[in-house]
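Following up on my earlier message about cytidine-5'-monophosphate. Here are the inputs again, as you asked, copied directly from the submission form:
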Amino acid sequence: MSPRLVVALDIPSSRSLPALLQGLPPALEWFKVGLELFAAEGPRALAPLREAGKRVFLDLKLHDIPRTVARAVDACARHGVGLLTLHAAGGRAMLEAAARAAREAGPRAPKLIAVTTLTSLDAGDLADLGIVRALSDQAEALAHLALEAGIDGLVTSVHEAAALRRRFGPKPLLVTPGIRPADGAADDQKRVDTPARAVRAGADFLVVGRPILEASDPRAAAEAILADMRSAAAR
Ligand code: C5P
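Thanks, got it. Here's what our run produced:
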């Protein structure tokens, strides 16, 4: 599969969605709905995307007891979600229950993507949680746990993506946020990389929000990102 661009819909309401979709290249297939929009509107927020024939990446970062998470995975499968996130820190039983629920939902099941450590946490935050190993060791241990439990992929910075590819091979789906065009502003992202570098590092899904949605010409911004991705894939 060639790498895909995912537009992060960090917006408070789906009212603006039809116009927003109109203003983007029709070839863009994937859109990420996060907690803000889903908490505001629930599955109703997904309707404009479904009606436009788009694929949904639901970024809910599930973290609960195994039975609850399994049932949430099943509900998301019924909403036609293609990618769904959960926290690897929910533990082996939760991850295995989620993977089982996805298997049982059959072909309409979402691919499950694990978050290892939130990029908003630093070593001090981990220490507050009683975690004394280095952040990178913690992230790698959780990645290993999630993949062993049958989770399909990982959220990672571009910076760590190549190492994860080397360590875990071609199978895991790697999802990379923190993407900025070569000449773009970093916004509040600490570590940013270009679309081409993400592709070369082995990313499968590149998540981009503000550089597209806040551009004066979102269509041109998205086209430029797609062109940069293709330039790397062609090498
Ligand atoms: O606007 P921007 O391109 O920074 O948006 C990136 C998207 O990826 C946002 O929806 C953000 O919540 C998400 N994300 C991130 N960094 C992570 C995990 C998710 O920016 N480590």
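One observation from looking it over: The first strand starts at residue 4 and ends at 9. Hope that helps, and feel free to reply on this thread.
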